Amino acid sequence: MRVGFIGLGSQGAPMARRIVDAGFETTLWARRPASLAPFDDTPAKRAVSPAELAAGSDLVCVCVVDDADVEEVVAGDRGVLAGLRRGGVIAVHSTVHPDTCHRLADRARAHGVTLIDAPVSGGGPAAAEGRLLVLVGGESGTVRFCRKVFETYGDPVVHMGPLGSGQLTKLLNNVLFTANLATAAGTLALGREFDVDPAALAEVMAHGSGSSFALGRIAAAGGTLDRIASQAGALLRKDVRLVADLAGAAKASTGIVLDAADATLALIEHER
Length: 272
Prior knowledge:
It is a single chain. The chain is α/β, with parallel strands linked by helices. It is about 50% helix and about 15% strand. The protein is built from eleven helices and nine strands. The strands form two sheets. Strands 3-2-1-4-5-6 form a six-stranded parallel sheet, sandwiched between helices. Helix 6 links the parallel strand 8 and strand 9. Helix 7 crosses helix 9. The longest helix is centred in the middle third of the chain and has 29 residues, at about 165-195. The radius of gyration is 20 Å and the shape is globular. This is NAD(P)-dependent oxidoreductase.
């Protein structure tokens, strides 16, 4: 299989490297030439546009930042759909609104192309080690076609259901993580009120029933949200708002999770 990869950021670059190292014929495209430099020692090809990349690919993986970027590289004037052959597949690894995937899938279908959503979780180190969580939404046959590529950087690769279900699952995961940040930070702050050392408290809780990934991130940052606010605050805010919008459109009861997530966003804003 010939694979094209677009989006060579901190997570996308090690994903692409795993594909290349697995022996797949791979073509890369990036807006910034510097993003391609780490691949100088590999057989990966370079393309001058997403359309040229797509013309030499059976599967195109897209791992860019947001909805607007996905729309541009997939459906722009020199986008993937301008070059991908009939029967080709586009996998959207970005975390975006499910409606974006549905809208682009409709456009892809008119070109004889299939689009699936496959957002990832775990970050660059997990990608480099081949242990990203890959959440896939799409028709089962298409998912089977892509799985051998996804498994070069993903473990587990989970088929969540129809198109858009991968995005919904990733967004729900991110909302829970955001909510857990507030409860973890609040617990450490309460411990300070009792003169309990926050580092020692975090170490104890990491081995107890109160442990969470969010607690570990806060403890590693010295017990505050400062680092998370600077590194991921904007992305967390985007994902929480997406879930709120989806819940509102579906008239779904959100329970306490969005309240806790909003509390985290308020804390992050206060830290800025």
